[in-house]
Amino acid sequence: MHDEGESAQSSTTLFCALYGLLRLYPDAADGDVDPEGLFLLRSESMGWLEDRALATNADGSSRAVGSPGLWHVLEAGYGDESIEGDSPTIWFHAALSNHGPEGVLPTQPFVRCALDVTGRLGFLDHLHAVQMIVPVGHVAASEAIPHLNTADWFSTTSQESRVRVSITIQCGADFDLSASAPQIFDAIRSLDQSVLQVESLTARNSIPTAPPPLIDELWHGPVRHEVQAVGTIANWAAEEIGWAAGFIAELCRSLGSAVPIAVSFSREVP
Question: Which of 162, 182, 175, 181 is nearest to 231 (CA)?
């Protein structure tokens, strides 16, 4: 998770960290299966893995081989319990493909993939937070919010499924997130969607105690701006969490930002 990488990757970095208590199954505890290997297999099995490459023909010309997908698998692993502070239980790091739907952030399948892999490794008890790094610059520069096109699906979710959450958005110095926060959260309240609702927000410009566990060069860090809000989400599940992360990224893009953001959702215990 702390390997060196090219700063150019920051515009395509997709990252998900899960926080909870993971009780590993015997094969995972023994090392027979591991997060990165299962991340690759699950991505491939669902058609999410980008594995296209160029092959050379006998006459020297090139041809494309493999299948297009949504992301390249880079790495995955368990959190480091020796690190002081709130270390993730498990994390997943990928780079967006150039062959996915243009301008669409695959945040929903990425969270789904992370939870599926974790479920194969062990029993995840009390998932209390999900943190994502989302490449805002991948969204087409527009005032349109593509995620609103699928918001109606979630309107059928039972009110009993709603969960109170704390929402944290972080970014580097290239975007004045604090100044834009009122517009972001006003849009969440006013747009025609029921997935994510917010009640109040705060903003601060100091480095937070728990920045994303990924080297700064991969996402235009370090953290310079942070805004926090409290509200509710339609359901504490992969689809809703992934949808909300992509929705917030699109709102940031509509305000002129192209830098990656870290979005965290923390479940509030009644």
Answer: 162
Angle formed by the axes of helices 35-45 and 107-121, nearest 10°: 130
Provide the domain limits for residue 135. Answer: 7-267
Distance CA 255, CA 270 (A): 34
- Residues with Cβ within 8 Å of residue 129, at least 6 apart in sequence: 18, 19, 20, 86, 264, 265, 266, 267
DSSP label at residue 268: P
Backbone angles phi, psi at 84, to 5 degrees: -70, 135
Distance from C-alpha of 34 to C-alpha of 94, rounded to nearest angstrom: 16
Q: Count of CB atoms within 10 A of residue 79's CB?
A: 18
Tens digit of pLDDT for each residue in 159-213? 899 999 999 999 887 777 878 888 999 999 999 999 999 987 765 544 444 667 7
Q: How many domains is the chain built from?
A: 1
Residue 2 lies in a domain: no
Q: Which helix (H) or strand (E) holds 169?
A: strand 163-171
Specify whether the CB–CB gap between 19 and 81 falls below 8 A: no
Instruction: Give, in order, the Cα–Cα distances in Å from 228 to each of 89, 188, 193, 201, 264.
Output: 22, 14, 20, 5, 9
